[in-house]
Amino acid sequence: MAESGQHEQRYERYEGGSPQAERLVFEQLARELMEVQVRNRRAGGGDAARAFHAKAPVAVENARLRFHDDLPAALRVGFAQPGAEYPATVRLSNASGIRQGDGSPDLRGAAVRVRVSEEESHDLLATSYPVSHAANAREFVAFAKAMAGARSPLRKAFGLLVKLPLAVGLRTADRMRRNVRAAARHTVDSLAQETYWSRGAILWGDAGPVRFLFRPAPGSPPAPTPDRRDPDFLHREFARRLARSDVDYDLCVQRFVDERHTPVEDASVEWKDGTSPAIPIARLSIPSQDLDAAEARAIARRIEDLAFNPWYTTEEFRPLGNINRARKAAYQASSAHRLGLRFATGEPVRNRVLRRPMETAFALLNRYVPWHRLPVQLSLLNLVFLRKVLRRLNLIDTEAREAPPRAQRVPEPIPERLRGERSYDGTYNDLSAPRMGAVGSAFGRNLRPDYRPDLFDTPNPVTVSRQLLYRESFLPATSLNVLAASWIQFQVHDWVNHRRHKPGERSVEVPLPPGSGPWRNTPGGPGENVMRFAENEGVEVPGRPPILFANTASHWWDGSEVYGADEQTARFLREADGRAELRLEDGHLPTGTNGGIPLTGFSDSWWMGLSAMHTLFAREHNAVCAALRAEYPTMSEERIYQTARLVVSALIAKIHTVEWTPAILATEAIDIALHTNWQGPPKKWLDQLGLWLFESHSLTGIPKTLPDHHAAPYSLTEDFVTVYRMHPLIPDDFELREHHFGQRLETVGFLDIQGGAAETRIRKTGLADTLYSFGIAHPGAITLHNFPRSLQQFEREGEIIDLSVVDLVRTRRRGVPRYNDFREGLHKPRIRSFEELTENAQTLARLKEVYRSVDEIDTVVGLFGENPPTGFGFSDTAFRIFILMASRRLQSDRFLNVDYRPEVYTPLGIDWVERGGMNSVILRHCPELAALLPRGASAFAPWRAVRPTGGSA
């Protein structure tokens, strides 16, 4: 490893000055290569092929590589030992990314996988010309893009003479054309007679950089003159040759001399034999066989599904140089795209051309007229372009990525069952990056973090809470009901959870302001002059501030709050004997031994509203199971369970998209936009034309598109967590009523229905009356001076906490920018005075008392204090995170787009989701509530209240 690092520093120079900067370049180039594959597929027909070397006349897996007994001592490294022999897979190919006849002018390639053991293999890739037409990866991709889709001589000439110079400049394009023409002039009669050069260097342990080549072994018989009209003559010639005898190649290496004669970074310079002679070190033998037999054809098909990559090796043999470093990301992306594991969504030229001027126009317009004050159609178009900007500039990957590339084993095959069902922990949602979005993945960012330890306690968060958050009187959100408050907590528990240290193990201490009195941090504990609560467990990354945190839930919309985030929990929650249903007791969640908290996927911060949601959707899962069993009697219990998980998770996503969100953002534009996300735009010619011109991907709902992560691997973000701090929705007290006659059952405080007390209360009240009671009651408005008093002093896991203070402290310590920077980062103008935030005289006075300047305002305070657009339940600034992340949760998740199909969900499952909604879920399990649900609105709008006819009201 140390030797590898020394060679890396000695021979390699990173584009952009660092491995991290170069990695970002390579990832973009990889995406561009996927677009090349799309264009080649359109030109060549059929499925997506390799970006290069699409057609393989020869593919065998019974070759052998044997190192010579007299292998020079300096080259005895790793698996390269005298007399060592290994099985090998060989694929000989035409270099074009379009499958075409063997007679077309082209280079040829060899891919050899040497299998040393179950844990070790080495992929050796070479091409039939000693140098690359491109000096580096940028030139390589520019050439590929210029020639993408070019089959006719005219198109090829246009690519070489027009597109390529525009991309790389006249001088570079001329050099590249000369190399390509020299290579293509060579006529090939037999793949057995070709020499294949690595062109780029690899490390050879302590021997340093080498280039390798495969050349025909001495004595190989010449090939007869072929019939070049036969599109498969190279295969036929090789097959006839193998039918008679073995085909052998010598593996040779050329050793590094100096940077001038044998450069590592520039693949367009030949390592000449006179400077660095080719030393034969091994013999590659393909044994005599019938290439046209059924077994050989089946082997060839299997090899077509392999992904060769020069980085599938060990660190002793790691590839070197710019092009080689780029090949890891490029080949992984290309092979994943070809195998249907990763997707490319090209943007039409008209959309690309019109994007920038329209973004500029709307940015200028929004200086004077905010989007929500424009006519509906114009506001919708404005949102389209705002989302484009946010996708481009406000998706920041926080994971510590591999830079520079490292050698690795050939990846394990994807577990077949996970192609059609969700994993328990979120792995394999993106089949090309199995860990993306899984449990333990880091939260991303929408804004660059601003980590300011010197401002953690400035101004004092307790003062901020008491002056600006404390609920002095209940401010209702009259367009919603308490089910909306329950729902969002139900969702947040599926999406995000920061792991905390155990109480007393590692704590945050917040000093109390003078004159505020003592605080008891534990039940019955002493009064103290500090608030103390458990710190979050961070992910330590050398050289970074401690602001990276892992999500203990999966980032995907997978119903983990119902099913659990690991297999052990999921199986524990199921009925005995492997039945597909979830365990229920008389229709309610079974209770555990932890103080009466029920057994479910995620039960933190438990209260009666959460219990109602969990109970409802546990019942819904069981209803889906029963329907699947009746419709498909041969379906196994495991398949029924997994399919029901998919159906319920998708139904939850749909309800949130087209019901909860339009309820809390009650405007016509948002209602249209959110329904467009799920089912496509209204069938109006003007809407269709506008999207065709500017955003054609929105012409269908997201479930009919392909996965697209846009500018960063998928994750939920710390900024997303911040805008979903919606605790003011929770009332401090509740009136429980029965739905038949409207009679009051009892009035309870939040703490009376929180924790273990929730299950006792919901069983006593019943699910139907609980839903009714919450359906007719209003939640709190998401605004200042409305934080629930019950949450400002309550017990959680042995601690007494003020959640309003915790919200402020967490946001600061996680490096979420303060409100004014938050606004600016989301492309809104900064506020210059407190008066721009609020017109309320009392709030204004308190803001000025608490904060020295508008730039100090806490993010949570600013979001709550901002005057929202008409009909909005939260601020326009928070909404910007929402419009970015709401569609991202659908767009990135293959189970909500490309695999949202009857083959995976079953026809019944798709129909269940498409016809279903919150009303149908409620009525399936509480049909007696039918007449009480709101007409023409979602179940999150206020229900009809039954007027008591007598007795206590």
Automatic annotation (TrEMBL):
Its cofactor is Ca(2+). Coiled coil: none annotated. Keywords: Dioxygenase, Fatty acid biosynthesis, Fatty acid metabolism, Heme, Iron, Lipid biosynthesis, Lipid metabolism, Metal-binding, Oxidoreductase, Oxylipin biosynthesis, Peroxidase, Plant defense. Pfam families: An_peroxidase. InterPro entries: A_dioxygenase, Catalase_sf, Haem_peroxidase_animal, Haem_peroxidase_sf, Haem_peroxidase_sf_animal, Oxylipin_biosynth_metab. The keyword Oxidoreductase applies. Residues 504-523 are annotated as: Disordered. This is Peroxidase.
